[in-house]
Design a protein that fits this description.
By secondary structure, the chain is of the alpha+beta class. The chain has eleven helices and twelve strands. The two termini are 27 Å apart. Helices cover 41% and strands 23% of the residues. It has two domains: 158 residues, Jelly Rolls, CATH 2.60.120.10; 101 residues, Orthogonal Bundle (Arc Repressor Mutant, subunit A).
Length: 283
């Protein structure tokens, strides 16, 4: 059964419905399948790095314009967002209807069957990477009668393409899982010892199969944790910084400016006008 979590948003920034589903059959490859539908009023939409890949389907066809980073300038049908080290900024249409699939690196590596480093820092047309088979996904999702039906179709489309795909090297999968489990607070030298890989080989394999080096991946995982805690409102900024493993609040602030172009306070004020937060909130 497709168990969907949905939230309504209504504010001066727009009105939209956000829904998501975490397909159990694709755990480890897919983080979440989501959908947002409604209106937005702000001229720019910002999203932030999270260490994963985003596959996007424009169900309404009203185009988005990419302002930052580099890549395919218009999102009219599909986009693939690679690993990012800075904010993604778009000019959204007044009305939108978008389906998204957040892929873990293992899922992106299997789907693209290509070194993931080639799309790091880019937003590209998905069909250029996957081929015309992506048109089937777009057509089926646009014709689907409900959110649950679209989610099921998207999961089936992915499962069919991931079933026989090549998997990440077990040593790299283990190292990435260790970084995730330890919330980015792991010595890379320790990973090298455990995997038996040299510094150069481990970095090269991570770029190919994760999209970034182990050090950068640990940085993104730690930032994702910090962003989740920041948005949950669990405490003062200094407490969030320490809980997320940052040396002090100035280091925490500098990291946020580097990865988002904003301070933590500016980020909280700006929020996410499209209704598709990297870390989900309901308000």
């Amino acid at each position: 059964m497709v168990r969907i979590v949905s939230a309504q948003h209504d504010s001066p920034r727009g009105r939209w419905t956000y829904s998501e589903w975490r397909p159990p059959g694709l755990a480890g490859l897919v983080e979440v399948i989501w959908e947002t539908r409604g209106t937005t009023t702000e001229p720019q939409d910002r999203h932030y790095p999270h260490g994963m890949f985003e596959l996007l389907v424009n169900l309404m066809g009203n185009p988005y314009r990419l302002l930052q980073p580099r890549g395919t300038e218009t999102f009219a049908t599909t986009w693939l967002v690679g690993q990012q080290l800075g904010p993604i900024v778009t000019a959204p249409p007044d009305r939108h209807h978008v389906l998204g699939i957040r892929l873990r690196p293992a899922g992106a590596y299997a789907l693209l069957a290509a070194p993931l480093g080639v799309v790091t820092g880019l937003v590209v047309e998905l069909e250029d990477l996957v081929g015309p088979t992506v048109r089937e996904l777009v057509e089926r999702c646009r014709d689907a009668p409900s959110v649950a039906a679209r989610f099921g179709l998207a999961a089936a489309w992915l499962a069919a393409r991931l079933a026989a795909a090549r998997a990440i090297d077990p040593a790299i999968a283990w190292a990435a899982a260790e970084i995730e489990a330890r919330e980015g607070r792991v010595a890379i030298a320790e990973l090298r010892r455990e995997t038996g890989l040299s510094k150069t080989r481990l970095a090269a394999a991570f770029r190919e199969q994760i999209g970034v080096t182990p050090k950068v991946y640990a940085r993104l995982v730690r930032f994702r944790l910090a962003l989740a805690m920041l948005e949950s409102g669990i405490g003062p900024l200094a407490d969030v910084a320490l809980a997320a493993g940052y040396y002090d609040q100035p280091h925490f602030n500098a990291e946020f400016r580097d990865l988002t172009g904003q301070s933590p306070r500016e980020l909280l004020v700006a929020r996410y006008p499209s209704g598709v937060p990297i870390v989900r909130t309901d308000g």
